[in-house]
Amino acid sequence: MGSVKWLQILDPLRGLFERSGVDYPMMRRILEMKLLMDGRRVPTLIQKSSKTADPDNQSNQFIKSLWIYVVISVVLVPFVVMKTNYMFQMSLVFGILMFMITTSMISDFSSVMLDVRDRNILFSKPVQRRTISMAKLLHVLIYLLLLTGSLTVVPLVVGLFRHGVLFFLLFLVEVILMDFFIVVLTAVLYWLVLRFFDGEKLKDIINYVQIGLTIVMTVGYQFISRLFNFVDLKVAFRPQWWEIFIFPAWFASPFEWLLGEGKSPLIVIFSVLSVVGPLVAWWVYSLLMPSFERNLQKLASHHGRGKSGGFRLQEGLGKLFCRGKLERLFFRFSWDMMGRERDFKLKVYPQLGFSIIFPFIFMFNTLRSEGGFAAMRTGKGFLFLYFCALMIPSIIMMLKYSGNYKGAWIYQTAPLTDTAPVYKGALKAMVVRLFAPVFLLQAVIFLIIFGARIVPDLVVILLGVLLYVVVSFMALEKGLPFSQPFQGSQSGSGFVIFGLLVLLGVFAGAHFGFTFLPYGEYLYMLLLLVLNLLAWKLAFRELPAS
Amino acid sequence: MIETAGGRQEPVISIRNLEMSYGSKPILQGIDLDVYQGQIIGYIGPNGAGKSTTVKIMLGLVEGHQGEVKIFGRDISDGDIEYKRRIGYVPEVAELYDSLTAQEYLVFIGELYGLPQRKADHKARRLMAKFGLEEVYFDRISSYSKGMRQKVLLISSLLHNPDILFLDEPLSGLDANSVMIVKEILAALAAEGKTIFYSSHIMDVVEKISSRILLLNGGRIVADGSFEELREQSHERSLEQIFNDLTGFHEYKDVASSFVSIVREV
């Protein structure tokens, strides 16, 4: 029965804990339970592999995901290796580290810091607050150490061999100080949010951080290889007074002070701050803690201060794009669900992020290979805009999933004779709410880059994507919107998705081909228009009631 | 008004002039209360009257109250939390660590109250069996139905054989047969001299099992006595009617009829 053996490593410290008034066996027991529960939770970064996860698997998914962080830490190696300017390179290293650790803390350990159940379950028991707080703190610290350890082990070793022992030790100490700083930073962030907003807002913010983390990680991979080009970079770096607000600079300056040439007063001040800052932060944290606990109560309370009558936008758009009452109804329903459901957003918004970024990544690749910006502007690089439709099949697939899938009984009990309007409304809401903003943004940027000549092409791409949406919908396994649990996702539709990606290439290829014909774009446009009308009719011709 | 088995004895819970507010919103506005051993107190009142807050203050879950709260003769704000060892608590919302199995959870809770691990396990397993849950003892609580969770909560509040029980809506989700069992259990525990502080919205149950009923409204106690006493005072027949009467809510018929008339509009 639930016991975590390796917690024994804390046993030698027992006396220390007991001297500070902590009931050691009780604390270890609480910690043990917390870790046991964590083992049954899945962190953000490896959700995708969760389909095979055995629900009774006792081992901690987070610990298994640590290798990802080791891989990511390779990004730091070029900065550690280069011998240009300690201040510059270490600022970048600490900047990346702080970003990674803070976002991971927020996205994966917010549940540790913000578990409201603790209140009812633990506080009502004859256990000292101090014991509970210590268990909580150690819980966070264990993860933080594991996370930081896997992120810094490679850079530390590289640093040891490249710059020597002093560098290594300095790095180690600064990383630990940084960790302290981050814990406080995260707690203060939560405190601020809870002070001024309620728990729902905080959950939203955590959700967005998770989304951001996923995007940055994936896009980050694209750049790893390119980073190594920077190794020989020469940077002249002068510390500026305003850098006092850039925390990574604090942690970088001791390197410059003790190992580099820079001995300006600012460097010394920053170096001192890198030690004093975390300590002061820790002190402030201990002062804020009671107020934090009090505000934590807000997490559990539901102050229904929703905006009233915010129906207008969906209403208007629904009227514009949908015919029939039922279709409009499900347009609005899907619109609201897409905006509200955090699980859905967490799965889908990162994909939207890629849709924004991918066309540019590919464009920049051609920029490097084929003679510059001027050449690209007159070329056919705008076809990369098709990449923004890459995520459409998987989003359509996602539409049938929901964290609240149990609510789907309404489909059975409501008198729905025809489900076609349900699907149609949901699909249209997806296009308008998720795809349209991305496309519009990119269309504007592409217009600026390529000039007004691509307007017909943009129309063609839009029509192509709309056709693509219907075809994807037809090809993919159908399920009523928001009616199935996420656990079942990503099962066996891989081939279909792959086929659909190829199809997108066909669309782009055809577009490319037509541009060689006189008035080709317009011809293609006409063709797509007809196909669209046909396909949207055909796809929703007959769908059985569920 | 208060008659107890032992005649004139020390109150188990003694509250004097208890006030509490969240921000500028007053929740409790002067509660005075003495609770004696063996009483089953039905603590009732409309939503937001302050029932849960009172219980939470006594458990030390919310801070910042004014006035005096004594449990077992000691002021709870003196920093000594030993009194919690003799208290069992079933919270209003079925909050438990549901990724744990019932065994893990119950043993953990038992240990928090200072029970040895093996004893907690043995006891929890037999109590689960009495509720017909022995087969799911090793299953995760997240797979349980509402009634099963409620039973786990009840067991977790009783493992350490407490002297006072705070039960917030303890019968929610239980089927009729289980309700019978729990009611019997409560009566038997009270007969043994345990004090039960019971809040619920289901008036029929409160009416039947409570030896003393406290009605809270707007942060004040507006009625205190046995069901018979309350019935005599207010000349109403059921606790439900007494409740309506004392909380000044008479227009339920009007509300219902206008509700139905809105339903009728299609």
UniProtKB/TrEMBL annotation, chain A:
<feature type="transmembrane region" description="Helical">
    <location>
        <begin position="66"/>
        <end position="86"/>
    </location>
</feature>
<protein>
    <recommendedName>
        <fullName>ABC transporter permease</fullName>
    </recommendedName>
</protein>
<feature type="transmembrane region" description="Helical">
    <location>
        <begin position="167"/>
        <end position="193"/>
    </location>
</feature>
<keyword id="KW-1133">Transmembrane helix</keyword>
<feature type="transmembrane region" description="Helical">
    <location>
        <begin position="434"/>
        <end position="452"/>
    </location>
</feature>
<keyword id="KW-0812">Transmembrane</keyword>
<feature type="transmembrane region" description="Helical">
    <location>
        <begin position="379"/>
        <end position="399"/>
    </location>
</feature>
<feature type="transmembrane region" description="Helical">
    <location>
        <begin position="92"/>
        <end position="116"/>
    </location>
</feature>
<feature type="transmembrane region" description="Helical">
    <location>
        <begin position="205"/>
        <end position="224"/>
    </location>
</feature>
<feature type="transmembrane region" description="Helical">
    <location>
        <begin position="137"/>
        <end position="161"/>
    </location>
</feature>
<feature type="transmembrane region" description="Helical">
    <location>
        <begin position="522"/>
        <end position="540"/>
    </location>
</feature>
<feature type="transmembrane region" description="Helical">
    <location>
        <begin position="458"/>
        <end position="476"/>
    </location>
</feature>
<feature type="transmembrane region" description="Helical">
    <location>
        <begin position="496"/>
        <end position="516"/>
    </location>
</feature>
<feature type="transmembrane region" description="Helical">
    <location>
        <begin position="348"/>
        <end position="367"/>
    </location>
</feature>
<keyword id="KW-0472">Membrane</keyword>
<feature type="transmembrane region" description="Helical">
    <location>
        <begin position="266"/>
        <end position="288"/>
    </location>
</feature>
TrEMBL record, chain B:
<dbReference type="InterPro" id="IPR017871">
    <property type="entry name" value="ABC_transporter-like_CS"/>
</dbReference>
<keyword id="KW-0547">Nucleotide-binding</keyword>
<dbReference type="InterPro" id="IPR003593">
    <property type="entry name" value="AAA+_ATPase"/>
</dbReference>
<protein>
    <submittedName>
        <fullName>ABC transporter ATP-binding protein</fullName>
    </submittedName>
</protein>
<dbReference type="Pfam" id="PF00005">
    <property type="entry name" value="ABC_tran"/>
</dbReference>
<dbReference type="InterPro" id="IPR027417">
    <property type="entry name" value="P-loop_NTPase"/>
</dbReference>
<feature type="domain" description="ABC transporter">
    <location>
        <begin position="13"/>
        <end position="243"/>
    </location>
</feature>
<dbReference type="GO" id="GO:0005524">
    <property type="term" value="F:ATP binding"/>
</dbReference>
<keyword id="KW-0067">ATP-binding</keyword>
<dbReference type="InterPro" id="IPR003439">
    <property type="entry name" value="ABC_transporter-like_ATP-bd"/>
</dbReference>
